[in-house]
Amino acid sequence: MNFLHHERTTLEALLPGLDAALARHPLAELETAPSPAIAEFRAAGGPALLVPTRNAGIGATPLQAVRVQRAVGARCPSLAVATTMHHFSIAGLVRTAAYGDGMEGLLLEAIAKERLLLASGFAEGNTGQNILAPHITAGRTEHGRVLLNGSKMPCSLSRSMDLLTASVVLTDDDGVDRLAIAVVPAGSPGLEVRPFWRSPVLAGAESDQIVLTDVELDPAMVVVTRVTADAVPDELNLAGFLWFELLLTAGYIGIASALVERVLDKAGGPQDPTPFLVDIEAAMLSVESVARAMDTEEWTDGLLADALSARYAAQDAIARTTTACQAALGGMAFIRAPDSTYLASAATGLTFHPPSRARMGGPLREFLDGGPLRIG
């Protein structure tokens, strides 16, 4: 079947064997914690997807990355959600490198070569908050080590992570507060993972709470940038939101696509596939359009507005598509094959990620009237 052909071809080219490995597991097994999908992702080299080739990574383009996420979402919704946050952390490190001291490159190379998984302690675009704004406080001990306190919830990959990456504010030798990226090994004393995610839907993403209590780090594990804490460059914040919105949206489109695939594969399936196909394909084309632009255009407020439009359009497309697919699969599928009901429920998750459409109404209106785009 040609449906999802581009996405699965891209996934196979960049992460050979992952699609087949995921397909061997029942969906219910993939979606529970601990999920075998995370080990399959690691084995296929997934942690290196967005690491630049100069740092021993795969160096996927934005277009390739969103296609990979859709293909992953179509096999394992939890893995798509969880790895979005890993990739988002990698993209943040890559972008921060322009403001850092060179340590980022060594860290990225280690991640690629050792296939390390990153949990994200960044803000993820929480309402009214800079995406790089710290959840975690940082200070210095009398011996010069860095001391971290705080928590992050939910935090995907909390139980499978090798490293936690988090933005912090740290005072430099001149007394200036600067943005820094702390890299915390999973086994650090004072780091605790607590239960948080109660829903069975997307449980395989391991989105629990991470708590840091007087966690001491060697200063070498903290990348201090030249950016002052009160002047985070728009380009860093913008890059974070662009990657977050596109990767997340592509993953959820993949979840809905899994339902479409079941309808198209159904014995005596529809002669006219357009009621199931057109909305979801159009949503993906919108995401791909923004991803292509990331390779050829300056990353501006306008491009972020396009990404948000693609994301909110995808929410509507997913809602229409999942409803149509469930009706086409029929009541017996609802009763006897819980996969379809699960996928429809998981696909609605895109609606709950910040920034919500309701909160962005005013900021988008202001942007259309000529103002800067702020995240509400």
From TrEMBL:
Natural source organism: Streptomyces tsukubensis
Record keywords, A-Z: FAD, Flavoprotein, Oxidoreductase
Protein name: Isobutylamine N-hydroxylase
Domain of life: Bacteria
Single GO MF annotation: flavin adenine dinucleotide binding
Record keyword Oxidoreductase present: yes
Annotated signal peptide: none
Keyword match RNA-binding: no
